[in-house]
Design brief:
Length: about 270
Amino acid sequence: MSRFDKWLVWMVAAIATGCSCVGETQELSSYWESHDFRSLKDFDDIDAAEDKFDGYISLLSKVRHETAVENLNAFLDSAALDTVAYMVWASWFEPFLHAKESPYRNDRLFAVWLDRVLEDKVIDDGSMMERLQQIRNVMGLNVAGQPAADVVLTDADGVDFRISDLKGQKTLLMLLDANCPSCLDYLTEELKERKRGNVRLVAILVNGSKSHIGFIRSRLSEDVLEHWTLAWCPGREIEKGMIYDLTLVPSRILLDEHNIVEKSYY
């Protein structure tokens, strides 16, 4: 293929993508014309409302971030006129935009939503607002481009080390719930799916102790264990403090050779 042909293919793909985004933006702008989302009275039942919301989030996840934010703010501005409707929509934004299994997961947009909900104070459920504030507090931890939070860990042989000691090699931190036996399957799955080359693997039991290490060794094969450094936090700083985002575990944090976070994911 000549250089011109490659350029032509790229241009056609770019135009097609642009047209697709324009179409989705137009569809999004007219999506609620047949329903008044400021109230739930326009829906036959709650399932119909959730189905409608599902389609809305699907469109919202396909447009440019700036367009999505603008539409999201307009949505919340109007929804805030009805406390009940606002509560329902707000309770659905989390599973649609933040939940591990969501096909529309978009934490960047979810953070915008959290800031708005916390600022609006329309929700009068104190425990829900407290939980959302906790989620927002940890979303800024260990984001891409920041140094990994440093803490003392103890490995399976009883040797202490710091996360900052891991510099010099790419490292994947797997944060695990020590009391979740099924979570250990992720250590095996990571080896099957891993295509990252020379990456050090460290499994951290965020609420674990020395006794949990023995339990893990009895559950996993040597073929798996030889690839992982098993560790726990003797000072419980990870479990008690705002050091890592533990809203969903197991979770992964990939560090570069300088201990800078490349990405955090579940």
